[in-house]
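Duplicate of earlier report; Tripartite tricarboxylate transporter substrate binding protein input re-posted below.
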Amino acid sequence: MRIPRRGLLALAAGLPATAARAQAFPTRPVTIIVPYAAGGGADITARLLAQRMTPRLGQPVVVENRAGANGVLGAEAVARAAPDGHTLGMVVSSHVINKAVMPALPFDPVADFAPVMLAARTELALVAAPAPGVTSLADLIARIRARPGDYAYASPGAGSNVHVFLEWFARRAGLQMLHVPYRGSAAAHADLIAGRVAFTLDTYAAVRPHVEAGRLALLAFGGPQRYAGRQEVPTIAEAAGIPGYAAFSWSALLAPRGTPAGVVARLNAGAARALGEAEVRDRLATLGAEAAGGPPEELRALMEGEALQFGALVRELGIRSDG
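Output:
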């Protein structure tokens, strides 16, 4: 049956505005804001996706670093951006933890964003300076327990996800320790190698050169399962006897709250195809990360679950940020 011209116009006028915007998207370059310094895992992941999403979206996808305040400055810029899909953010798990450690956070890390896709899961490794008689995490725990208050652990900042993970570990393992925050990993690694702090938790990619050179001892991984790339190394939960302990990071692509579902779906599809490329997956593997993917709903469930879990944990541990 042929529909009269007036009928076609009426149907077009009745199309939801969000569908029309999704069909037109994107109309200009898309910016992925990375709220951390260049060269980190989130930055590298964002650039891998941007390069491959560009031809699929038909507009340039560019990455902009806006580091500061443990990711708050850049994330706020995303939250305040127009909800049209042209400004996105690539955040890591500390984005969610910030809600618990920063009472004056200027946005809600879950409610003020539209999840697009979980990009990658990143392995965190617990490392210590090599020492006689310390060949396992159990050995290290025994040594620290024997001298309560004499040892310190390092993190990249008070209130960071690593601070939360390590304080959680120390409390559950019965360790009385000092927390020493650093501004980034490099300074922490130097003091760790020199023996001024006992251990730290960092991405496997960041510590692997020191481990391979014998400057640091790899004692455990933080994830819920053993890392596929080093199956012989136990998890912290196994080695320390802490059931339910899991410390790993992730990177995720977010849009501002209110971004049309059709636009989110197109971004999700473009990111999914990028993550499906072998070159991308191989590059992430060199960072100790595993390409993830999945629908926006899965990312929202992850963020909501961690907000509840770590909110309760941070209150129990009494942690606050220095950001």
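The chain has two domains: 29-122+248-317, 124-240.

Merging into the original ticket.
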